[in-house]
Every structure is written in C-alpha cells, then in structure tokens.
Amino acid sequence: MTVVRSIARTAPGCHEGCGVLLHVKDGRLVKVEGDPNFPLSQGRLCPRCQALLEVVYHPDRLLYPLKRAGERGEGKWERITWEEAYKTIADKFNEIKGAYGPESVIFCTGTGRDIRPYLDMFAYSFGSPNLVEFGPLHGNACYFPKIVIMAALFGGFAVADCAQAYPERYQSPEWKVPKCIIIWGNEPTTSSPDGLLGHWIVDCMRRGSKLIVIDPRRTWLAAHAEIWVQIRPGTDAALALAMLNVIINENIYDEVFVKKWTHGFDELKKRVQEYPPEKAAGITWIPEEQIIAAARMYAASKPAVVQWGVAIDQSKECINALHAITALWSVTGNMDVPGGNIITGQLFSPAAIATQRHEITPEKRNKRRIGAGKYPFLDWANILPGESLIDQMLTDIPYPLKAAWIQATNTFACGTADVRRTYEAFKKLDFNVVVDLFMTPTAMAFADIVLPAATYPERDGISQGWGIACIGAINKAIEPIGECKSDMEINLELGKRLNPEAWPWKDVREMFNSMLEPAGVTFGELRGKGYHFGPFEYRKHEKGLLRPDKKPGFNTPTGKVELYSTVLEKCALDPLPYFEEPPESPVSTPEIAKEYPMILTTGARTRVFFCSEHRQIPSLRKMNPDPIVEINPETAEKLGIKDGDWVYIESRYGKCKQRARLIEGIHPAVVSAQHGWWFPEKPGQEPSLFGVWESNINLLLPSGWAGKSGLGYPFKSQMCRVYKIEESQNG
Amino acid sequence: MAKYGILIDYEFCVGCHACELACKKEHNRPDGEWGICVKEIEPKITGGKLYYFPFPTDNCNLCGKRIARGLKPACVHNCWTNVMRFGTVEELAGNMRKKPRTVLWAPH
Fold first, then answer.
1. Which residues on chain A are in Cβ contact (under 8 Å) with B42?
2. Beta-sheet strands, E only, within A84-156
3. Least enclosed by CB within 10 Å: which of A214, A217, A636, B14?
4. For residue B75, what are the contacts with CB-CB under 8 A and spacing of at least 6?
C-alpha cells in the first residue's frame, strides 16, 4: 500500500482543494482520507471526496475518445483513437479558422478551477478571444460581478480573513479573530464557496466570532447567529445602503480611514440619505429595528468581516449591492486589517501568463471578442458577456460562430438561463467537441467528438485557490482509467498541433515548471513540499504594496477606495450604489405577482453535488435523490402540498417539476429550488437527454435580464407559482 | 465496562454527513447499514438553535483496527468541523468539563 499526498481539485469539480491522502494498492485507489498536515483543510473532508472512489471507478466513465456515429442526439458513438480525434479536431478547427477566422471557434468551460489556465492558453494560442466562462452564464452572475466591482472600487480582490493567509492558521500572531462575521447571501458550511472552506467560519465561531446572517432561509449558520436577517430576495442593495445610512448618520464609522483612504465619502453620505432604515424595512421585509441593530453590531465590532455569496451576484443590478457592501467594510475600517476583509493576490497568475504569451492585450481581445462594445464596464474588465454569445450564435452578427470546444461544462443543464434558447444556439454550430468525465446532456445533444478526462487522482497539477497566495501539488496516484487524459494534457497535446510554437513543452510537468517560474518553485519542489505559501502582510495600502508605482494607497485612479467610483462613471454607470427592484417582483410588477405570487430563489448549494455534477454517484445521490424545492409548511398547506409531493414550479416563461420539502425556516412567500438537475439513469437520447428538461429550474428564466453593467441576473429573485402534480400527470 | 468513547461538540456540528460516509467506506457497509448517523434536531425542539447530532449505532466498534494502528476512528479523522474527539472515557469526561453542549458516546 502506498499513500500519495495530494490536493483535491477538478475533476470532479470543487471550489476548494482540500489536502487528501490517496491510498493506493496494486495500482488501484482504495481509500481517500483528509490530510491532517495540510493547513487549509487540516484533515477534514466533505462527502464528495469521501465518495471519490465511486466517481473514479464509476461504470459510466468515458474511457475512450468517441466520434458521433449517428445524428446528434441519437446516442450512437464509435470509439476512435486519440490520434484520430486530434486530427479530426485540428483539421476542422483549422478549416474554420481559414474560412471565417479563429474567433469563429469558441472555447467554453464551467467553473474550471485549476484546469482553467490551460484552456486560456488553448483559446488564445489558437487566436480566438472567445473564452466563455460558466458555459455561458447569463449576466456572468457567479463571482465575476464581485471580482469586477472590487477591481473597480479598490483595484484588488478581498476575502474574509479566517487566518488562511498563514500556514500557522489560527496560531498566527498576526491574525485576529473577527468579533463579528456577516454571512451575506451564502451558506459556507454547505457550499464552501469560492476561496473559503465553510469550516473556517465554524473555527472562528469557536474562537468567539458572533454572526449576522442575511438569508431568506434559516440555515444552520442563521440558526446560530446573533441576528438572522430574513431578507426578501433581490433587495440586498437596499439593506446595505440602509446599514450605511445608520453607520454614517450615527457617526460610528472609522473617520481616520475614511479621511485618509476613501474617495467620495460626502457623495456616498448624501446618497444613503435616500435609504433610511424605515424605508429599507418596507423594501426588504426586514424590521427597521433589526436593520439598525445589525448596522450597530457590525460597526461596533473591531474587527468585523463580511463573507458574501453568490446570492448577491444573482440579482439583476447586483453591482449596487456589491458596491454598497464594499463601502460598508471600507467606511468601518475593516479593509485589509487582521480579521477583516483582506486583500489577497496569487503567487502567479496563469491567466496573465496566457495573455502575455499570446499578446492578447485587453485592447486586442476586446476588438473581436463576442459582445465587445455592448457594455463599457465589461469592456473595461475585458469580459465576454454570457448572453451575447447566445445572441451571436443565433444571429451570426457581427460574425458567424461555427465550432465550440466545450471543456468541463454542462451548458444548458446548469447555469444558463432561457435554457431552450441556449440549447438551440449550440445545436446550430457545425462542429462541437466535449471534454468530460461522463456522457452529459451537453455531450449527447451537441458533441461530434467526445474526449474522456481524468479525475484528479489520475493526474498531476498545480492547485491554486483558497483566495490567497498559496499553491499546492496535485499528485498523480494512479494511472488514468481507460484511455483518459488530464484536461491540461489534452490542451497541451492538441495545442501543439494547432500552434506548436505556443506549446514548447515536452510534457505537462515541463509546462508546470514554466508556469511556476514567477512563484519561485519548480513542480518537483512543490511536490516535495506539498504546498507553498507566499508572503502576506496586512494594511498593504499603508506600505505601498498595492500599486505598481509602489506608492501608498490603492490601485485605483484616485489611489483610494472609490466609494464614488470614477471607473463606473467612465462606463456611463451610476458612480454611487442605489437600489432597483428586480425585473419582476411584488413591487415592480404587482399584476404579474397576482398570478405568480411566490418569490423563487434558485441554486442553493448542497453538500453532495457540485453544480450539475455527481448525480450518478450512488452514495451522494442517496442523500439527495430528487430535485428539491423548499416551501414553508404554512404556504404548502394553503396550496394543498404535502412534504414529498411532486410539484410544478412555473413562471410566465416556463416550468419544471421538483419535489416539495416543507421547511419551517424559509420565508412563507419564498420558495427555494435546486439547480443543475439531470438524471443520468434516464435515457440519454433525444428528446430525453437524461431527463434534462424535467427539473431544470432555469427553464423559468427568460433572456434579456442582465444588469445595466452587463453583470448580474435574477436567478434568485423571480416570480413563480407552485402547484401539486396529480399522480396521473407525473409520468 | 466502556473504556473508549467519542466526545462530540454538537454545538458546532453542521450536519455535513462526512462522518457517515467515512464510516461506510471504512467498514464497507452495505446500503442501509450505519455505523454513525447524523440526526437533525429542529429549533422548536431545542428551544432555539438548529442542532445536528451524530449518533454512533450498535454497529460502531470505534474502528478497533485503526486504533490498533495508532489512527483515529474514520469519523473522527474526517469530521469536517472537527467536533469529534476520540479517547478514553476518563480523558474525554475531563474535556467535557471545559465545554458545554457536548455529548460523550461510549458505544460499547
């Protein structure tokens, strides 16, 4: 028996990267345990890695490259060699490049984790600026809004400080326990959102942190909070602005920080006068006194920190809520202090390496990129608007799209809104390649070639994540199953055929060494050490560590945290945060609300699935066998719905069926439905496509609801009705 | 006489079920057999908070083989919020004095 120390990363997908001990006997993975020596996870391991063997040795794993042998969707495949697969793809991509230009091939990925940088290089070295994150995702409404707004407001990226910047963790003499943690629009103990392991929050609670939890659902964290704020979905900006109103008007902000390090405080002060707590109470359904109490508790706690979630990104005008929340931690002096919201970086930026290598300057990428010129703020951030991709696929304006490389994303089964439209758009393309672990609805519906990817125990890699400058070695423990190859191996090998100069490395390890140069370690050294932490300091703005010119201050045009954003102003957006009703709500569309009276929030994470993955893993599926919609028992009684009933959830635009779970801890006017559902056990062929049309909650969302900035989409605030499906209808 | 036990700080168990799966994998348990099982206790019963309660069943042998090799029981090793501790009943009872909202299980 050998035990291989590694980091858990994609595939199957995961946001984090816990330390794992992979037990191998006779070339076979026999056990997975948490690695107690890895500081960021300390031996803990969630159910998804506990079930890793069921993924690795699943009988449905794709084992060989396949080419389509019948019509798309017929499910007829022929096994081919890697050589034939690579040759077919290279010929086809080059043919399209010759006829229409490289930009006519798009490169899609999901929430790619450590496999993403190689895809960047793959797209850019081919010459296409069209790298599509999240499949596509309408309004790029998952984490991107946060990244972009933080870059605009203070020129950096901040995370909640749970002592993750130091390998000594909670023993670090520099770190302070946050006195107060606001958990805003997420449930880290279930989701472990990007860059934050949920147990870090529990570790802080055990060390004295008190919680304010802002969530329409009573999560475990909400049930353990000092203040649980049961907000109306989609009104976070109003709450944040009212909290700013209290903190500024009661003079309980950090005057020194505001004076020295912020720009536009007076303008913000004026703006928040429009949001007295009394008014916000009416908007958010939160009692006025609770808004005031939360604001005072947060302002009085030093240090205090905000851990925010994707629920905020998934509202239409999300950048306002994100802006106001950033202002909250700035005016209270919690920016980059121990136990506050800390500004972090990366040891090396694989994406930057990819863009530099191929001279994809923002200007160059913006020129031919899909959706260029539509949203000035996205042009500023150099981001491809998800919905514009669908528009262009269907219209060929301004140029036709012909082929898609779809790596690690399950397009219309997961994040995309207006699902049928996305499906039609991808079907229209001439040539599609899907790289995945399993035959997915996406592969079945569109793929002409399917390539089998390796899971993380079958490959090497560099893990970077956790929101901080730390890297870890993903160590291959077993040989790949069948003829599977790692994602980056596929990118490297095919990249060499398409543009040999861009891929000068003989194998992935040589490629890793080249990427690791800025971090100052080789892949061999990293494997020996297991992990490597970069240096970290607090209050970097005071020390000249944030700006390229090394002057104190923040990396923004004014050198300060821009409460009044000069970037937003330049992009013809309101430089100050404001609240706008969701496109459909009891307030903005009372007529619609009469017919569709419930507020639908979707995509609450589970512990057993990662987005659309893991539905075929027996021990995980047993914990969540059906798509679940949570309903308050009072509401359910009025609707004649019992716990476990199958119900239709229906909006003006579409419907799907899920199973009712009656939960007291959800607001009576809100229902919460799971996303990402398909049924690997159902027929894969058209029209079933593994039952992807049955419970897909995004069938309820139309196109055209992205925020004015291009960012944000109301995945968590739309109107619906819910009714029981009679036995006879439930086929 | 019970010699060893597991002390569980149920105040901070978030109900992730990692212990259940770790146990099932360690002992190769068939469907429907549990060595430890996490139960939810709702706020209306607890008088306020939402609690999860990992309960070791009669199938639990405290991972005798692992213990003999100097390892912790599988559930304790993999516990996601670090709320489980293995030791002698005496030692754990001592720990219990320092932290309320704990429960000491001695399954056999």
1. 664
2. 105-109, 131-132
3. A217
4. B6, B19, B20, B22, B23, B35, B36, B54, B56, B63, B84
| Structural domains in chain B, sorted by start | 4-105 (3.30.70.20)
Residue-wise pLDDT tens digits, A663-708: 999 999 999 999 999 999 999 999 999 999 999 999 999 999 999 9
Residue A301 falls within a domain, yes or no? yes
Contacts of B16 in chain A (CB under 8 A): 46-47, 189-190, 607
Q: pLDDT for B4-53, tens place per residue?
A: 999 999 999 999 999 999 999 999 999 899 999 999 998 889 888 899 99
- State the residue range of the domain holding A628: 590-729
Are A470 and A378 members of one domain? yes
d(CA A177, CA A286): 28
What percent of chain A stands above pLDDT 90? 91
- Could you tell me if B2 lies within 8 Å of chain A, comparing CB atoms? no
Kindly tell me if the per-residue pLDDT of A518 is higher than 70: yes
Taking only the tens place, the pLDDT of each residue in A352-409 is 666 666 666 777 777 889 999 999 999 999 899 999 999 999 999 999 999 999 999 9
Q: How close, in Å, is residue A648 to chain B by CA atoms?
A: 27
Q: What is the ipTM of this complex?
A: 0.96
**Residue among B12, B18, B44 whose CB faces A50 most closely:** B18
- pLDDT > 60? residue A731: no
Find residue B99's DSSP bridge partners. none
- Residues of chain A numbered 176-215 and touching chain B (CB < 8 Å): 189-190, 198-199, 202-203, 205-206
Report residue A33 as tokens. Answer: 């345990």
A403-407 vs A431-436, strand pairing mode: parallel
A31 and A81 share a domain? no
Contacts of B26 in chain A (CB under 8 A): 31
- Which of A492, A153, A505 lies closest to A329, judged by CA? A153
B50 and A218: CB-CB below 8 Å?
yes
Is A688 within a domain? yes
Q: How many residue contacts between A and B have a Cβ separation below 8 Å?
A: 76
Q: Does A352 touch chain B (CB under 8 A)?
A: no
CB contact under 8 A, A202 and B14: yes
Most A CBs within 10 A among B31, B33, B50, B80, hence the mutation to make, goes to B80
The first and second tokens of residue A443, run together, are: 């592969």
* In a shared domain, residues A613 and A693: yes
Residue A11: give its domain's CATH number. 2.20.25.90
Measured N-to-C along each axis, helices A288-300 and A277-284 cross at an angle, to the nearest 10 degrees, of 110
